[in-house]
Fold this protein.
Amino acid sequence: MSTLSLAVRDSSTMLRRNLLHARRYPSLTLNLLLTPVMLLLLFVYIFGDVMSAGMGGADRAAYVAYLVPGLLLMTIGSTVIGTAVSVSNDMSEGIIARFRTMAIHRPSVLVGHVVGSVLQSVASVVLVGAVGVAIGFRSTDATALEWLAAFGLLVLFATALTWIAVGMGLVSPNAEAASNNALPLIFLPLISSTFVPVAQMPGWFQPIAEYQPFTPAIETLRGLLLGTEIGHNGWLAVAWCAGLAVLGYVWSTRTFAKDPK
């Protein structure tokens, strides 16, 4: 069997393993999924009128359209925390030591986690998007090409954050530490343009919200789904995704390659 065939076979096996774990123990994914859903409902039905009035007098429907794209990306950040916890559990429970003694393609262990997490992220985004549609979100101005680009951005963003989460899981001594280390993936969307435009934030805070990976990705997704201008945010979002993916991949593979002491 060629090296490529071995890698594909073992990666597929590890993917099935991780999907089975997610199916048998769905509580972690569901708990993480509740955060963006609850924020969506909270900001639409409790703060919606106030927030929309502060954004130039727009009605609640306009604020729903503004809010949903940001929460879709926040959903990805929430979902991949489960990946960090899962990787940390594998490292601490001894299964990785068993895998190291077997004649398998070693990177397939990480590939299985990454592909499984991306699939879970896409499924979570679909569920949160369905809630958004149920409460009034509409994307009538987006073309088929823009929908395809939006899906590609979501997959690319999920892949980048998943590799970062895998690295966090590998360096964490236990599941609790992995969950805590991955909290910035939920915190960063809260200080981005998810809820209000960057221009309406205090001047000293605007650079914090603008120069981070979530804001250009949110603005790009918002432009694609609503048919509005994207400007320079498109290439910034792709650059952030590519940089984070490479960083996470190098960090994860090098950490995983080290033999345990």
About this structure: The CA atoms of residues 128 and 245 lie 24 Å apart.
